[in-house]
Specification:
The protein is α+β, with helices and mostly antiparallel strands and 391 residues long. A hairpin with a 7-residue loop joins β4 and β5. Bound molecules: alpha-D-galactopyranose (GLA). Alpha-D-galactopyranose binds next to α5.
Length: 391
């Protein structure tokens, strides 16, 4: 892949000089959805597919980017010393946002650079193609300009780019998983303290199967931001009634039972119920996994889906159909929607001997009921974003 991209780079930008290659993965979250901005826990892993980038410094202050994924208008350029948000930023908003946030933190590029990008994460599938691009840009900036930043700082700055430049008020789940991912392991992260530990995923006779509904997510950002506001509103109501918390993720089951009566608005109550229960489910699920109780882990994945569907209301008919088909398929340990929701992907834990059958059965049922053609990927768990070499 890299050789091909290097050749393409020379074709687009001209040969010569030192070129560096980078890779930044996508991510899948096994459990712990919509908990990150609620100060709760998540349990994602980095995937072995993602976004590649080839970069080389220029003699002026321009950043020129060519994306192999974009058919119309694959070229974008902007001055690195004067990044301004523009109406027509389009796909380059992520890259520009990262350059801007770095500069705002004092990490200013002393020259421009050329960059070729190629990604294999389906867009809008909820596997974080955007955070993958943000971390790709971060590792490129760090390497080209020798910025003394560590991965956690880059994770935070990438999230800031998404929040302040792109305008999506996401939590830290995606950027953390993509920056800090480790081959063969999932990351158990407390999004409040950023304390994390790697949990080796020893699923000897099992596959993690990602099912893409190919239902493109519409209006995701606004609905996402709305969910986030509801949770913040719930915290305010609870605090007005004498509860002292910053995040819903601070509540345990018993305390929530005691105070939930203050949430008289039924919508706020449902949103808070999900945020609290999903966080506790995630903590419990990781404990079960550590104890080797894979079926128990799977049950909690299923419960997570029900909560996202009924209490948080971020699922959609396509996701529900695919998850229900999975639940009825032999050898399935657990299945749920993954990511922000409103379309995108499901994640299922399936006994390997049933993988082919699963893909066929779930695929057929999904197709019959939705008239959409799904895609399935058997997920490999890869490392986080980084440099692959100089050429
Ligand atoms: C999106 C956001 C994440 C997280 C998930 C839901 O992927 O970018 O921060 O909130 O949704 O868990």
């Amino acid at each position: 892949m890299i050789k091909k991209l290097l050749r393409e780079f020379d074709k687009q930008f001209g040969a010569g000089g030192v070129k560096s290659a980078f890779f930044s993965p996508g991510r899948v979250n096994l459990i712990g959805e919509h908990t990150d901005y609620n100060g709760g826990h998540v349990f994602p892993c980095a995937l072995d597919f993602g976004t590649w980038g080839i970069a080389r410094k220029r003699n002026d202050m321009l950043c020129r980017i060519f994306s192999r994924n974009i058919k119309n208008f694959p070229w974008k350029e902007f001055p690195v010393d004067h990044v301004e948000k523009r109406e027509n930023d389009g796909w380059v908003a992520y890259e520009k946002g990262v350059v801007k946030v770095f500069a705002d933190h004092g990490y200013r590029c002393d020259s421009g650079f050329d960059m070729l990008m190629y990604g294999t994460i389906p867009n809008g599938a909820g596997l974080s193609s955007s955070a993958s691009v943000e971390l790709l840009m971060s590792v490129i900036l760090k390497d080209l300009f020798r910025f003394p930043v560590d991965m956690i700082q880059m994770v935070k700055m990438s999230q800031m780019a998404e929040n302040s430049y792109v305008g999506m008020q996401c939590g830290i789940l995606d950027q953390f998983a993509i920056g800090m991912g480790k081959k063969g392991a999932a990351i158990f992260l407390d999004c409040n303290t950023l304390h994390y530990e790697y949990a080796p995923l020893v699923l000897e006779d099992m596959d993690i199967i990602i099912g893409n509904t190919n239902k493109k997510r519409g209006l995701v950002d606004s609905k996402y931001n709305e969910r986030r506001e509801s949770c913040e509103a719930a915290v305010r109501v609870l605090n007005d009634n004498g509860v002292h918390i910053r995040y819903l993720g601070e509540l345990d089951e018993k305390t929530f039972e005691e105070v939930k009566g203050f949430l008289r608005d039924p919508v706020l109550l449902k949103r808070a119920t999900h945020a609290v229960s999903e966080n506790l489910r995630t903590i419990r699920a990781v404990q079960l996994l550590k104890n080797g109780d894979i079926p128990g882990f799977g049950q909690l994945m299923n419960a997570s889906h029900v909560s996202l569907r009924d209490d948080y209301e971020v699922s959609c008919p396509e996701l529900d159909i695919m998850v229900e088909a999975a639940w009825n398929s032999p050898g399935v340990i657990g299945s749920r929607m993954t990511g922000g929701g409103f379309g995108g992907c499901t994640v299922s834990l399936v006994q390997r001997k049933e993988t082919e059958n699963f893909i066929r059965r779930v695929g057929e049922e999904y197709r019959r009921k939705t008239k959409l053609k799904p895609d399935f990927y058997v997920a490999g768990i890869g490392d986080g974003a980084g440099k692959t070499g100089d050429y």
